[in-house]
Amino acid sequence: MRTDPGYPDRVTSALxxxxxxxxxxxxxxxxxxxMDIEKAFPGGIQGFEAxxxxxxxxxxxxxxxxxxxRRSGHNRGDEPQIVxxxxxxxxxxxxxxxxVHYHHGMKPGENTLNALCSRILMRCLAEDNGQYDxxxxxxxxxxxxxxxxxxxxxxxxxxxxxxxxxxxxxGLPAERCAMTTHDTPSIGGLATIAALVFAERLRGMDxxxxxxHCRDHLALTHPDESLMRVCDRYVTLLCGLxxxxxxxxxxxxxxxxxKGTGGLDVADLVKRNLPDHQVVGRMYSPACxxxxxxxxxxxxxxxYRNDPWLALRVNTNLGGDNVHRGIVLGTLLGLTSKEVATxxxxxxxxxxxxxxxxxxLISAATAPR
Length: 369
Hints:
Helices cover 52% and strands 0% of the residues. It is built from 17 helices and no strands.
């Protein structure tokens, strides 16, 4: 299949906007009362901010430091301490204290752990001529997560990370370390998908093959069929937007992506002109679960498609799992507009390294063969 000469610019914008959206939402990640956001940041988040000391909705102290999911009162004495000993070295002290921010100590414009995992995959793809190698990714992922001192500044690791390394510590092969918990079908599972889609599309791969590879990649950390089905739709949407459709084409693609997802008619929902807090908070949960977060992403992308910076600020100030929704939303909006990437990317802490990694990925995937 022939690739459009506009692909590299759209990919660059999409990936840059993904990291911007992540850093923008980081300070109020998992705030579940929008009034708490207003209290901490009067007028809401409008640009990059540091993580506050106090987090009013934090339940990090309830999450297991030995496995995925929540703490239980039946921890076996021989279970290793994953948080602090295997991953997040030096950060376990923050997990047992109420109201500690999930991203404690992070500075304005820093990216969260799942966004950094997207960078891991980008580097792997660039090093292998744009081709996907699950073993290369797993090796790089394990090396990054277990580094001592830590290779990142985040304090929290989602359930899937903790479950993976609980199994890894038991001696399971890396490709069998994925753990299924109550929140496996979550929007965070899609955080690394765009890089893989873009690399393979730039190499000229067909949609069904890209979907298959994305399912294989997702299964390494998020083995859930409902999430896989949404991933298929996400891949289709990314490939469609990468073609540079006009306004009507964008609306059609976003509408199609919602069909079969709880009967979502995104165009009709936007026409109803409901307050965003009614759509996200009453109709759909702002939490991570893909059954709600995917419709929310499509709703925000459709409603604010002509003002992407407003879309990302609205997503941020709606709270909940706004970071991982933002990564997906930012990728979609970045494919259709360079506005956010042009105006905000250079304010990211790691913008130089990220820019080089994006360029290396595109160069590797488009190199003559």
